[in-house]
Specification:
The protein is an alpha/beta fold. A 5-stranded mixed β-sheet has the order 2-1-3-4-5, sandwiched between helices. The longest helix is centred in the N-terminal third of the chain and has 31 residues. It is about 45% helix and about 10% strand. The radius of gyration is 24 Å and the shape is globular. Bound molecules: zinc ion.
Length: about 270
């Protein structure tokens, strides 16, 4: 009889514990539901840090290879597929900006890579019609690079540091002056935006102080810029991401360590993705 009494006392206690557990676990699960905007902002930060780390890996204190500017190409599945740095000195060619080298060398990898965005041909792995490739660049793209991105149908571009003089190209191309006899906006456009992260703000601020003295490319050889790039490299390697971006983070670090291994890609086809 006493055993029955004991177990009947235990039932409400067990029930209470179950309810308490539900109360603790369920709201936690609801909170863990990722905010898509947060996830995509974090992913932008990871790949922007990757672009900076690619540049930092062959940091130029003097004019050897080119300027300290570079970019990475991310496929629609979120996988880094190609990288490039500015190489205007080593090539003695002023067109050899990071983004030009990125697009031109990537497209020369294979005939399948005719366009970078809105592909209808899904023979290339990860190509989703309507969702193309994103370029992450360390400096706001110039008119040449933005033109190239426009005509190769890059889906989206993200940059770290603003270029107050040579930047804002999409805004300039999109400007409608037809009301007062000027040109219509350029017929093709794509989104380009500055990433929101501490290194972007630090570079913009440091360059504002430098602007009166010299050019943005000279600033990018300065110890101030080098320090910001060094901290970006370190931050990527010690980044603590949400669960949703764990794969992107691991892929970015793996790409940096195993694919970005040359100072200058004289034969870029060797770095073509499989
Ligand atoms: Zn450029």
């Amino acid at each position: 009889v006493s055993a029955i009494k004991e177990s009947s006392k235990r039932v409400p206690v067990t029930l209470l514990l179950c309810l308490l557990a539900l109360f603790l676990v369920v709201p936690d699960r609801l909170q863990a539901e990722p905010d898509p905007a947060m996830v995509s902002a974090e992913r932008d930060e990871i790949y922007a840090l990757l672009a900076m780390a690619v540049v930092y890996k062959d940091w130029q204190r003097t004019k050897q290879r080119g300027h300290n500017i570079g970019s990475v190409l991310i496929d629609p599945a979120g996988k880094p597929v190609f990288w490039a740095r500015n190489a205007r000195y080593i090539t003695r060619n002023g067109t050899q900006h990071g983004e030009v080298r990125l697009i031109r060398n990537y497209l020369s990898c294979s005939d399948d890579r005719e366009f970078l965005g809105e592909q209808t041909d899904v023979s290339y792995p990860g190509a989703i019609p309507g969702h193309g490739y994103t370029i992450y660049s360390t400096l706001e793209p110039c008119v040449m690079c933005t033109g190239m991105m426009t005509l190769t149908r890059v889906w989206r571009a993200v940059y770290v540091q603003a270029d107050p003089e040579y930047g804002r190209v999409p805004q300039r191309l999109g400007h409608d002056a037809s009301d007062h006899g000027g040109p219509d906006p350029y017929p093709q456009q794509f989104p380009m935006e500055q990433v929101v992260m501490e290194e972007a703000a630090q570079l913009d601020e440091a360059y504002q102080a430098w602007l009166q003295e010299d050019s943005i490319t000279a600033f990018l050889r300065s110890p101030q810029a080098e320090e910001i790039y060094a901290s970006a490299d370190k931050r990527l390697r010690t980044y603590s991401s949400s669960m949703e971006n764990a794969g992107s983070l691991a892929a970015a670090i793996r790409f940096l360590d195993s694919v970005v291994d040359a100072k200058f890609l004289a034969t870029p086809s060797e770095d073509c993705p499989d």
